[in-house]
Fold each of these.
Amino acid sequence: MYQVNNKSSARQRFFIFWSFVAVVLFTASCASNNRVAENPKTLFQKAEQKYQSGSYGKSNDLFQTLQNEFPDTEYAKLALLRTADISYRRNELEDAARTYNDFINFNEDHEKAPYAFYQVGMTYYVTLNTIDRDLEALHQALETFQEALARYPDSPPYTVKIIQRINDCKRRFAKREFYVGFFYFKQGKFHSAVGRFEYILAHYPGFIDDKTLYYLGLAHLNRGNIEDGHRALLTLTKAYPESPFVPKARPWLDKDEGPGLPLLFMARDYFLLR
């Protein structure tokens, strides 16, 4: 009786041992298969599909998983960039700027670095609305785009886009300065108006020069600076002969006096011709 029980117990232990081995081997096999199925390339492709379909939450989770599980791969770098893109698409601009900067700091020579730099500038640029709002975002956008151009001067197609944004930021600055200068002009504060108009021509040339020269000339004439006024108006007629401001400038070139200009008439011209 004792021997029978002993044999039965041995068979049970044998069965339990090999059952355990089978479970371990099966689990390891499944884990291996899952890891093969979700290598960094496959995982990135799956996340990218979610991103392109607009499923930003799911794609963000997958990109984060990729960075955690395969941190030393090229796909992890691209995943970091995509998490910045997701924040940008969600209008989470501070998070986007921070993540784009993280990508640049860790991958300065990466082929996508110019894109990341451009996007940092865009996180400021997209907040711009009107010319009389706070200028901090405009300053930051311009400085970022200028730094991007300095660091990556030959990185098509981003170089062209960066230059376009720089010019647009400068145009916005010029319009903002003119907005203030024309306000002084309407108030009869011609000295302050002259300062603003001259600043535009010195720092933001090539954007609204004809309009600026016209009102600069009139501001000088109103101050009694006939020579300076004529010089500004003459420059306007020679440099921008097709400008709609030229016909209105010519009569003032024949005048030797400035005070008493019809400001209401000129204000109307501004709103018609801007």
Amino acid sequence: MPHARLLLSLLLFAPLGLAGCADGPVKPDPAAVKTLRETFVLSDEPAAAVTPLAWREAQEADQEAEESPSDRVVLTGMVGGMPNPWGAENELEFPWKAGEATFFLVDPATAEEFSSHATEEGIEHAEDCPFCSREAATKTTSIAVVTFPSTDDPSKPAAVDARDLFGLKEGDTVVVQGIASVKGGVLMVAADGLYRQP
């Protein structure tokens, strides 16, 4: 009898537990993705791109301010390419923001520093290398937070993961254009165009 009750419970409640699993993550609306791609993906590489560090150096030559006014910019860099400088408890999916059209663009020189260190360490280089973690925490000025706005509400990021929207992978080199500003010491780009280098 106890076995019969157990079997009945399994039959009744198992479908409830499995319903969400079968569906998997919510996929973005293909029509919305198509519209956003047509809006933001550039067929030609914008000219006169600078790196995040070069942009900051130019700004510092003009002014010594923590907060900067908005400025039209064309930036080039790598998607990721360094450890999360804000630690594991912040920006959990660095260099991405899950579910939104935002990613972290790293200055190529900084990405090369971390790549060279990993190469020197070879197979023994730990993913949670203490040296890399310490260094990353000092390199936030090498990063631009790039966000593509929603076409419905430009004050919010588009609700499509940048990986799905642009087919990006960590390590890709891209050029982005948009409006740059510095908030809390972090370079932010409200982007309106992206070109992925082949």
Amino acid sequence: MAAYVWNPDATFRITDSVRGDIICIGRTFRRFHSRCAWGIREESPSNAATVRNLLGVMGANPPTLVTGQQLEMLARHCLCSYHQRQISQATSELRGHLAVAVQAYEQYNDVKRRYEVLRGALVRLLGLQDGGQSDEDLVLQIKCLIVLAGEFAPEAGDVRSLVILAQQFVLEAVDQSDEEMSSV
């Protein structure tokens, strides 16, 4: 299964995608409450460096480990001098973006857990060795077993019943895993 990718810069929309500069996340009232987008680097190179370091620290861990203090510091350094009064509003906006990232991360972990249960159930059911082989290798082994089952039991009904039995076994394993997780 593919790894989860958490990119705080993209999540918080801190960097101007065209210029690659850190931009102010303050809100302007003249332009329908849109983002200021003033370049932070021109105003304060140290703020831009701090922002890049903060984004690196946040990106090295899952989004669930981002703290309120980090968000406030990020907001403080991502506001131009004109919008410094908007720290609490900017922090709140960053919290909203973080909540979406945390939800996506938790959904990913749930899918990953279900995937691992399903994979384990298939390996046990089919009597395969789970030596950490890739998914492609596991699929290839399963296909070989199906072909072998078809050769030893040429009636299509026998192969179909084997597949149905495998599906039932896997569904029961996933249900048991869900029950175990809900009781924790």
